[in-house]
Amino acid sequence: MGKTTSGVSVIGAGESPYTRHPASGTTTQGVLADAVRRALADANLRTSEVDGFGVCSFTLGPDHAVDLAWRLGLRLRWLMQDTNGGASAGTMLQHAVRAVEAGDASVVVLVAGDLMDQQVHLRMVAEYNRATAEHLVPLDMLGPNALFALLTQRQMVAEGLTRTDYGRLAVAQRAWAGLNPGAVYRKPMTLDDYLNAPMVAEPLGRYDCVPPVTGADAVVVVADERAAGTRRARVLAVSARYNSDDQTGDGLVTGLADCAPELWETTGHGPADVDVVSVYDDYPAMALAQLKDLGLVAGGGMPAFIAERLATRKLAVNTSGGQLSAGQPGSAGGMHGLVETVRQLRGQAGQRQIDARLGLFSGYGMVLYRYGACATAGLLEAAA
Amino acid sequence: MSVIVQNCRTCGGQWFPARLMCPRCGGADLAPVGVERGVVEQLTHLGDVVIASVACDPEPLLVARLHGTVAVGDVVELTDRPDAFDRPDASGRPVAFVPPSGRSREESS
After folding, report:
1. pLDDT tens track for B30-39
2. pLDDT > 90: what percent of chain A?
């Protein structure tokens, strides 16, 4: 059972612009620093006021969190380094909220990001973990596309979905991306574009797979009393599950199925109260699995939910375009949804701004052998 | 032909990849056992490479590479030898390759 949080808010968010082809000389440290700088400027704070810092990056090595803090000129009393990739935002936010509540830190910056050119990406997917290196790479299988193709086939059977259903999700996210100057793919996409794209691993085509980008995302977390009078996103609850099923299931239910009741019970809200949602869309199937686990797919079944709520964009899901259209910046993918949720709740979402009071974000990731094993979610509320 | 998985001598659970303790009972007595066959649950193509989810009876679930003409629901012979495709099994069944860990490769050779 989770505990409600008290008096902790996100008061700033920043994103180092995503790019498919980073300029020569671009470094992981450089894009992380850029996101930190932008988030602090957004929060109207100076580095000298930061006393807590958390980072998740696959490509920071051989440096660690303290090296990055040093290079940023941060003198700290609270420091963490996270490794949960797509779930890192929730992991770090869960810790940061408690640190601020406990008084161990008062201003925490959380950042995630990676330099992700093709060479780095290939090395990362080949050496993702021991199981990948020993049991998947020797199959001549580089990267998780085939695993999620198998999972998507299971979901199609279980939920009665067709490729057209997944296409509707991808097309809707591309429409949101058209309103986000920070998305790498903004040109409108039709269902035919989706269905006629080259096959990657059936049933997954090109537009089911996220484009790797270089970039970073950061947020600033503070005690509420420090945020008085500023437009902020109050953290109502954060919940996490790791290795919820020992990889023995079908992968269609994530740890979020256990996080969601905790979020609702501790806050007194329910899925119907949520105005804006960011789920981790490494593949459309996983975006749908998370929406279901979070309780957002009401009675009528998944195909009807997609047609009536997602395709129409009546339910505001992945308003940045998500990773499918905005890009997947390595481990910053985990922070991308939190940044978008904060922007929506703080009224900073530009053309894609919706009238949002309650925002929900979720993260998912770290494929162990058959599917991802880390799941985190948080509920935030607009406050002034 | 077979693939080496872990068998928990306390609860009978079967695991792959190798665990450090039995996820079901917490036992530490995990012994290598050979599993010879499985059923193809789903399959997909990465170019010419056929990747499948293969279910052993009663467990574990494996990620394998298939060779030849295989359909969902087919029984496949499991092997941890990458060259087994060149030497079809006498059974005539299709072959599914599951790469072993460094340790079980030594144990099985």
Report:
1. 999 999 999 9
2. 91
- Residue in chain B closest to A200 (alpha carbons) equals B46
CB atoms under 10 Å from CB of B11, counted, come to 13
Q: Which of A134, A201, A203 sits opposite B99 (nearest CB)?
A: A134
Q: Which of A139, A145, A152, A157 to mutate to test the interface with B (most CBs of B within 10 A)?
A: A139
Model confidence pLDDT, tens digit, residues B33-80? 999 999 999 999 999 999 999 999 999 999 999 998 899 999 999 999
What span, in angstroms and rounded, lies between the C-alpha atoms of A169 and A175? 10
Chain B: give the shortest CA distance to residue A246, in Å.
7
Q: Could you tell me the domains of chain A?
A: 8-116+214-230 (3.40.47.10), 118-201+237-383 (3.40.47.10)
CA atoms within 13 A on the CB side of B44: 23
pLDDT score of B106: 44
Q: Is A241 on the interface with B (CB under 8 A)?
A: no
B55 in reach of chain A (CB within 8 A): no
Number of domains within chain B = 1
Nearest CA to CA, how far is B42 from chain A (Å)?
Answer: 6
Prediction ipTM score: 0.94
Measured CA to CA in angstroms, residue A170 lies from A138, A167, A246, A305, A336 at distances of 31, 5, 30, 14, 17
Q: In chain B, whose CA is at the least distance from the CA of A150?
A: B42
Distance of CA A311 to the CA centre of its chain: 21
Interface contact flag, A369 B60, Cβ < 8 Å:
no
Query: Do the Cβ atoms of B99 and A135 come within 8 Å?
Result: yes
Backbone phi, psi, residue B96, to 5°: -120, 125
Nearest to A258 by CA among A93, A158, A374: A374
CB contact under 8 A, B42 and A153: yes
CB pairs under 8 A between A and B: 73
A89-120 pLDDT per residue, tens: 999 999 999 999 999 999 999 999 999 988 88
d(CA A87, CA A248) in angstroms, rounded, equals: 20
Lookup result for tokens 């959380």: A110
Residues 6 or more apart whose CB falls under 8 angstroms from that of B83 comprise none
Closest CA to A254 of A244, A263, A246, A264: A244
pTM of the entire predicted model: 0.96
Q: Can you tell me which residue has the tokens 């008062």? A: A106
CB A246 within 8 A of CB A209: no
